[in-house]
Amino acid sequence: MSKPIFLSKIAKKQLDSLPDDTKNRIKNALYTLIDAQKSRKIDTKKLKGIKGREDLFRLRIGNYRIVYFEDVKSIKIIQIFHRGKEYKWL
Question: Which terminal residue of the chain has fewer beta carbons within 10 Å of its beta carbon, N or C?
Answer without folding.
Answer: N
